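Hello,

Our lab assistant flagged a job as stuck in the queue for most of the afternoon. It eventually completed. Since we weren't sure the result was trustworthy after the delay, we are filing this so someone can double-check. Below is the sequence as submitted and the structure that was eventually returned. Let us know if re-running is recommended.
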Amino acid sequence: MRRIALVLVALVLVTASVSFFMKSHKNRGEETKTGSQSVAVDVTSPARATMQRVVEIYGSLSPKTTTAVKCEVPGRILRVKVKEWDQVKAGDVLLEIDPADFRLDLTRNEAGVKMAKAQLLKARVDLNRAKREWDRAVKLKEGGLITGQELDERKTGLESAEAGVALAAAQIGQTESQAAEARRSLEKATVRAPIEGTVCQRSVDVGDFMDKGDMLFTVVDNRILDFTASVSTMDLPLVSQGQKLTFSVDGISDQTFEGTIKRVNPMVRDTDRSGRIIAEVENAGLTLKGGLYARGKVVVEEHRDATTIPKASLIGWDLEKRSARVFLVDPGNVARSVPVTTGLTDENVVEITSGLSGSEHVVVRGGFNLREGDQVQVAGIEPGKSPAAGRRVGQSDETAMAAEVSK
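-- returned structure --
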């Protein structure tokens, strides 16, 4: 009996093992069959966009024209017409120096001019008399009435009169020059703005005695600013004169400003190995101020109407070789990979220069779990339907599902 019981137990164990093996094999087959249909992916179609390559720059703004107004003639300040931060135009009066001494000097020099002119008249009278005496002496000599010595004396008198006229004329020129200098000094006693701008610094007050060369005002013209920026050594060869740039400044974050590169320094700094550029910025509204810190970019390359896909679609992206692969979904919901060549990039998308025609359905999410020939299920599309029946380019999951429900 014991032997029979053992045989029965063995038969039960063998039967159970065979049943478990068949069931497990069947389940694995079903899992394999359904597994190829269970890879969920998101797809999109290539879009057309303008792609740009930009160089980041950082720097500060400064007025293109800053003029130091200095005292040109010594004297005591009589009146000051402007205060700090006043707007002035070229030629506006800034201050007046006491003109009394300059007027006296001008009067004295003008009197000297009159005296020199009077002396010239006298010298000309003397010259005319010397000429008459010379002519008379020549005739007398021909008649033998005077000696040769007397004739020489008349000639010397004529030459002396001519020299007197020349000297008087030179004295007029000298005194007129002195009068003009005095007149100019009197004009300089009224200090005027050399440029249109803003008085950013005032260093003088009424009653101060200022010597020649002393600082009076600083006037800046903010209508045109210089944007002096640093560029990395690698990007410096890409930047050139005439390129446009855009930038923003601290404190005015809601606006973007533009400028034009005017100069590029051919040398790099030893401290940080960066190059410097200077761009000219129009500031007609005077919104920008000198000294503001600015961050901007220069567009050094632009491709219009480029084929683009999300960066997340790329598999095995080699940035140096500009090569990658992407998975496409065929109408039969079968995944296949194709090589592509990449171009310009931005934060989210990449340009595809070859490998795609623009009408494919590219796997955006789930591609890393795919193998060549796998069956896929596109998110938001009923099983068995082609991706072409699902979302359009850029269409969201919710929009695509709503479209399916409406059908």
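-- support follow-up --
The delay was a queue issue, not a problem with the job. The result is valid. Residues 23-36, 389-407 have pLDDT under 50 and may be disordered. The radius of gyration is 48 Å.
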